[in-house]
């Protein structure tokens, strides 16, 4: 029995647009609810949400019967963290703040078994193999892992063309908030100078044969990124969706 087919990775290869959403509650029940919404992909955020490996595993379990593909964002691109989320059953990993081709190559190695990589060969007891039932997992896992890297500062932008040449990088995600702040605009990703850099980056990613991705939290920005050619596009954050809906509902009925 081989590793499960990564339908999200195949969709990116096919050039299909994938619409997703961020998950920041770090709770399995909210992940299960989000999994019923119809998004193509959902991010389990290990960078800014209060997640650990157990809560990440529990959210992967909660999404196991959902058509939405789970993408795990690790806090930082450390090999040991990537090994843990892969063994927990993640097939797509998103790594923040990638600034060089050398760093990108190390991330690819973290996602692959020897001799091409350094992933530990202990999957038999892990959820990745469904506890040993996927007997051919080690022989087939590498081709089903999808590695997405975030380029979100000036150093990363300067190295973008070199990062795009790294074999094993499936997509590049632009982080507009971090990028705009690093450029001196303090989170104002709608500044014309920032938009110009984002547009150029998305075009270069696509031209290199990789999938370009980004997050938009306001309709104008999200539509702009879509028009710029973003292929895997996150269109909201679960915490913001709840907060905005609850505040609007309270305001509506308190005004009557």
Q: How would you describe the overall organization of this protein?
A:
With 256 residues, the chain is α/β, with parallel strands linked by helices. Helix content is 43%, strand content 16%. The protein has helices at 7-13, 28-34, 53-62, 79-87, 101-111, 137-144, 154-158, 160-163, 176-182, 192-207, 219-228, 238-254, and strands spanning 18-23, 41-45, 69-73, 92-95, 146-151, 171-174, 211-215, 232-237. An 8-stranded parallel barrel has the order 1-2-3-4-5-6-7-8, surrounded by 8 helices. Helix 2 runs parallel beside helix 3. It is globular, with a radius of gyration of 18 Å. The termini are far apart. The model has no long low-confidence stretch (mean pLDDT 97).
Quick take:
The protein is α/β, with parallel strands linked by helices. The protein has helices spanning 7-13, 28-34, 53-62, 79-87, 101-111, 137-144, 154-158, 160-163, 176-182, 192-207, 219-228, 238-254, and strands at 18-23, 41-45, 69-73, 92-95, 146-151, 171-174, 211-215, 232-237.
Strand order of the largest sheet: 1-2-3-4-5-6-7-8
- Let me know the average pLDDT: 97
Rg from alpha-carbon coordinates: 18 Å
The description of the largest β-sheet is: 8 strands, parallel, barrel
Order of helices and strands: HEHEHEHEHHEHHEHHEHEH
Q: Could you say which structural class the secondary elements and strand pairing correspond to?
A: alpha/beta
Question: So how many helices?
Answer: 12
Distance between the termini: 61 Å
Question: What is the total tally of β strands?
Answer: 8
The portion of residues forming beta strands comes to 15-25%
Question: Which regions contain 5 or more consecutive residues with pLDDT less than 50?
Answer: none
Percent helix, as a range, is 40-55%
Shape: globular
